[in-house]
Amino acid sequence: MSAKVHEVPKRPGGDKRGSAAARRARKFWMLSTWGDGEKCPCVHCEAMLSFETVEADRIVPGGPYARWNVQPSCRACNVARSDNADWVGPLATALLGE
């Protein structure tokens, strides 16, 4: 009797995020570049993010996860923005008085 191999479902459009090691390195890079190495603010709402909570928000939606195209975002803002490059986050909305 052979064991069944559990297959992980593929992400829609492939997985552009890279390996787990690449994702960890990207998180450390965002924390160091945008913050003090341990924490950095969400670019949209200024919530303080840690390694566990920071997400790579692509500036050009659907573009590569290259350093020139990622910015730190909290989960709520990243999900709200989705693939909408024109989305204005809560910080900009408050600053613009909209």
Question: Overview of this structure, please?
Answer:
The mean pLDDT is 83. The radius of gyration is 16 Å and the shape is globular. It contains 3 helices and 4 strands. The protein is α+β, with helices and mostly antiparallel strands. The protein has one domain (20-96): DNA Binding (I), subunit A (Orthogonal Bundle).
The largest sheet has its strands arranged as 1-2
String of helices and strands: HEEEEHH
| Total strands | 4
Count of discrete structural domains: 1
Helical residues, percent: 25-40%
Name the overall outline.
globular
CATH class: Mainly Alpha
Q: Based on the coordinates given, report the CATH architecture.
A: Orthogonal Bundle
SS-derived structural category: alpha+beta
Rg from alpha-carbon coordinates = 16 Å
What is the distance, rounded to the nearest whole angstrom, between the alpha carbons of the first and last residues?
Answer: 65 Å
Beta-strand percent range: 5-15%
CATH topology: DNA Binding (I), subunit A
Rounded mean pLDDT is 83
Identify low-pLDDT runs: none
Count of discrete alpha- or pi-helical segments spanning 4 or more residues: 3
